[in-house]
Amino acid sequence: MKYYKAYMLVKVKEGQEWDFIKKIRKEEFKDAKIEYANPIYGTWDILVEISFDSLDSLDRVVTKLRKIENSGIKDSLTYVGACRDYPWE
C-alpha cells in the first residue's frame, strides 16, 4: 500500500521533549504509523514523521497525539505531503 507523509511540529513544556517522544512510541494506529520523532532546535521542539493512507487516518493520529495525557504538549503544526510515495530517485 502506498502512503502519504505528514510532518508534525510540536512544542512541549521545557524539558519534556523525550517524555513526549516516549509516550507517542507506545501509540498504535490502524492505517497510519509514526515513522520518526526527534527533538529539534529552533522555534519548535519535536519533529514527527507520520505515514498514512487517508486524511481521516491522519486526523485520528494528530488528534490522538494532541490528547495524550500529561504529554506537555503546548502547540502543534502539521504539514502534509502532496504526493503518495514521491519517487526520490
Question: Largest sheet, described in full?
Answer: 4 strands, antiparallel
Rg value = 13 Å
CATH superfamily: Lrp/AsnC effector binding domain/regulation of amino acid metabolism (RAM) domain
Give the termini distance in whole angstroms.
Answer: 19 Å
Whole-number average pLDDT? 90
Q: List the helices and strands in order.
A: EHEEHE
Structure characteristics:
89 residues; 2 helices; 4-stranded antiparallel beta sheet; alpha+beta
Could you please describe the fold and organization of this structure?
This protein has 89 residues and is of the alpha+beta class. The protein has one domain (4-80): Alpha-Beta Plaits (2-Layer Sandwich), CATH 3.30.70.920. The protein contains two helices and four strands, in the order βαββαβ. Strands 2-3-1-4 form a four-stranded antiparallel β-sheet, covered by helices on one side. The radius of gyration is 13 Å and the shape is globular.
